[in-house]
Amino acid sequence: MALEKNTPHVLIFPYPSQGPLNCMMKLAELLAIVGLHVTVLNTEDTRQRLFLSSASLPAIPLLRFKSIPDGLPDDQPRDASLLIDVAESLNMNSRLLLRDLISEDSSDGFPPVTCLIVDGFLPSVVDLAEEIGLPCLSFRTPSACSIWAYLCIPKLLQNGVLPFGEGVDFNEVVQGVPGMEGFLRRRDLPEFFRGAKNADDPELKFMATVTAYSGKARGFILNTTEVLESTAVHHIQSQIPVTYSVGPLHAILESYRSACGTTDASPHTSSLWQEDTACLKWLDSQPDKSVVYVSFGSLTTLMREELHEFYSGLVNSGHKFLWVLRPDMIQDPGWTDEIKRSLPEEGRIISWAPQQKVLAHRAVGCFLTHSGWNSTLESIIEGVPMLCWPFFLDQQINSRFVSEIWRIGLDMKDIHNREVVEKMVRQMMEGESAARFRQSARDMADAVKESIAEGGSSLREFHRLIEDIKSMSNSVVLN
């Protein structure tokens, strides 16, 4: 008698930060919509923050949520400065808890776990999966171009390109990242590249190690499309052959929701902050393409002086703006209150936005952004040009691609004085330059939308991922 095939059940484990959570939650919902059982594993801290923010997680029969401790004290911050600390704590403390979770008998009718999809910052989970005989896929949520640069760290060290040393010209083009030799400057590399003093720099070693480790998983998932990053994807495939380019995931998900007739009935959000939906009514009252939307993401922090320079530049530009200022964005919350008290009629400040809806709104003319990958993809799919001020990690490289490769915005990297802010806002919003950026952004949006339509490259990759998960699940020997 033929053996009965295992029911695919995917355990998805995101890194506990807003960007990875957004991205991997969308993949989880997609996999559940197409008929796979999915468990999303969050940390207890993330679960609590989702509850406090009134997040509306999708209620799908094949999707459930579990949580485990991250191993850090409850009162310890989980901000950008502790990114590696959180990852190392999770890598150290999750193995035993995760093993118990995978092996436990389900009381809600879910079959045993047959496959893991884990954030690439958690390589210990890849090892655990192999130990217990489960296939594991690694998922990195930044851009492919940044991941390719991270994979090149050993070569850059070997060739003496890194570390930079004192007094170097940061506008000099970097040699040693194939495909980017003509335009990637030292200035465009992440802060842990630029600040490394030697080959043993802990941040540089951590990023090189976890990125290389993705090649040890059964496959490597990227939230991108070859329309945007074909060169970087092909270089990554030279080192990690089983790579899936399945993005933009948020747009694929919207397409599936629409096909299921659940778009209006599914206002799902995995936001760690309470969203201010009233800003959408304010946008309704503004003329088309008249508003600068400003958001520096979930982890960026500003010095008081930086905040004031951005504010002054926005006000002096004469354009209306909608600005997201998180409560934890600056150390002096009183300064945010002072900004709000002096706010002109043209401006509106909120603590967090329903960003996809804001970017899709007809009133938004450009996006002043930190160039996080989720934000970049959301802006691209809506055809909104970007003014980039990157903060850290992949954002530095993303902003260079926006300005120099895709030509859909400007890069304000390393600059934040009011004169430059005003000048660049005007370039993005006024006259022939604004018209050129908007046309380029519309053309790029059309090309990316084709990649997620029937027959498009990203949709084909997503279908390949599903079939490979089913195939891997069938091969698992369950106890």
TrEMBL record:
Per the record, the coiled-coil ranges are: none
User: Which domain of life does the UniProt lineage start with?
Assistant: Eukaryota
Under which main EC class is this enzyme filed? transferase
Swiss-Prot/TrEMBL keywords: Glycosyltransferase, Transferase
Q: Which Gene3D superfamilies match?
A: Glycogen Phosphorylase B
Q: Which InterPro entries does this chain map to?
A: UDP_glucos_trans, UDP_glycos_trans_CS
Record flagged with keyword Glycoprotein:
no
Q: What is its EC number?
A: 2.4.1.-
The entry lists its GO molecular-function terms as: quercetin 3-O-glucosyltransferase activity; quercetin 7-O-glucosyltransferase activity
Q: What family is it from?
A: Belongs to the UDP-glycosyltransferase family.
Protein's name according to its UniProt entry: Glycosyltransferase
What is the source species? Carex littledalei
